[in-house]
Amino acid sequence: MKKTWWKEAVVYQVYWRSFYDSNGDGYGDLRGVLEKLDYIKKLGVDVIWLNPFYESPDRDNGYDISDYEAVMEKAGDLDTFKELLEAIHDKGMKVIMDLVVNHTSDQHPWFLDSKSSKDHPKRDWYIWKEGKNDRPPNNWRSYFEPSTWTKDEETEEYYFHSFAKEQPDLNWENTDVRQEIFRMMRSWLDLGIDGFRMDVINLLAKQEGFPDADNPEQISYLADNPGIHDYLQEMNREVLSQYDVMTVGEIPFVNPETGLLYVHEDRDELNTLFHFQVADEMPVMDLPKYKEIQESWYKGVFEKGWNSQFLNNHDHTRQVTRYGNDDQYRTESAKLLGIMLHTLPGMPYIYQGEEIGMTGVRFDSIDDYNDIAMKNKYKEEVAKGRNPEEVFEDLLLLSRDNSRTPMQWNGKEHAGFTEGTPWMKVNPNYQEINVEQALDDQSSVFYTYQNLIELRKEHPVMVYGDYEDLSKGKEPLYMYKRTYKNTTWLIALNHSEQALSVKSPKTLAGEATRLVIGNYKVDAEARSILPETLDLKPYEARVYEFVSAD
Ligand code: TEU
After folding, report:
1. How far apart are CA 541 and CA 496, in angstroms?
2. Ligand 1: residues whose CB is within 6 Å?
3. What is the span of the domain harbouring residue 384?
4. What is the mean pLDDT of residues 238-264?
5. What pLDDT, on a 0 to 100 scale, did the predictor assign at position 1?
6. Catalytic residue, candidates 46, 55, 194, 199
7. 339-361: per-residue pLDDT in tens?
């Protein structure tokens, strides 16, 4: 297996608009990231992923771009970005940007030209089709709308959008589109960025002929279509292969077999991926399923490609709420989830605030929410005649806004995020959960994450170790081992609110060991000799190291 800098990295995701507001306009900004860079450095991460800050009307929080080479005014300006980039590099970290090239904003000049006339040279930069009997060209639904088609009354044709109508899809069959995107990518890489997170990159190729779907609600027809690998191999050949960068593709709807095709090191496409078999198929922790998913991706990808480990991001509810316990055992379960993600095979991603155990949120009204996906779905469901209160309740747990509330820096007004009025309400629990409190408490979630990141730099078993699940059918226990050369780590996790006594693996019980990390105090004996029986407290996590002589 090839060793690379990015395989050994831990990535910190900065959703800058909720990270820190440096100018009091209520939005976080790039200068805010700069002002808090020492905090990120203290955590010890290697790479920072910045969500999109390109010029945008901001209908989908920057994922609707109207100028790929300008900086959105509320984020700052290009000079500030260059200052931030230099500071990140000076502190020994790298930065990857969000590449959103499946679609643009409907206010992008390219789309305004394309829309202006059927004969405009840029008409074919987007996907236009005639309707059928005054109906959309087919029955597909988009991520954010009941249909992937919106009619332009001027030219009387429909344009295609996988997301909101304000996000028309680019036509990747058009060579000029691809060449323009590759040029834009080079301009950012030449500035010195260290790679890209590629937004829904497996949606670039569309199904030939746009046939009706048997089940339009199952929108996987948007992804993984013939031609996608040709586009990515061309992108790699023309751009990525000329730089020492990392790429992570956001690749919904794949399994290990189809996912490997994007990240196989011999295929010259992408380095790593986010798959969504957990996020899309596990609304709450389903430990047997989670173990199956981990094992299938380890067996399917580990040797020849590279996977990521994450349980939350700007699109997914905070993991301690969704998969842990954000009440009585918040810190214990936040630490357990962190220890799990950093000891499973693959690159760990930390979403801002995860490292202090920030939780999901519950506001009282749909008006307190910002997310276009949630608001569109609410409108769609209420329009069907459903009770608005019921619809609101249904949307709460998985609303993307759960993870977009402002970063909680301290217990002062607006959690120290802004001197102005925050663009989004702060989670009401900010006075008990904030960075200042975490840094003052050596037993906080923060220091568990800092320790995990430090351990990764010293112990190749965390990165390159093989993986074996030792706990099938033994839930709520998740116990697995990682082995690399003469080192074995045994990870024992109690995913429950109850105490749990479990037999240690016979081959390791009684063996001399070292407790590498845990989230409870462990008596001296159980720290140096693996007990026959492990008595785990609620949400207790322990990692033991065994080093054999040979
Ligand atoms: O998200 C894509 C998206 O919504 C799905 O991949 C979803 O995240 C996944 O299936 C798990 O549920 C990306 C961005 O992260 C998101 O913020 C944007 O709204 C969207 O693309 C459109 O650019």
Report:
1. 11
2. 60, 63, 100, 143, 163, 199-200, 250, 252, 276, 279-280, 314-315
3. 364-404
4. 98
5. 81
6. 199
7. 999 999 999 999 999 999 999 99
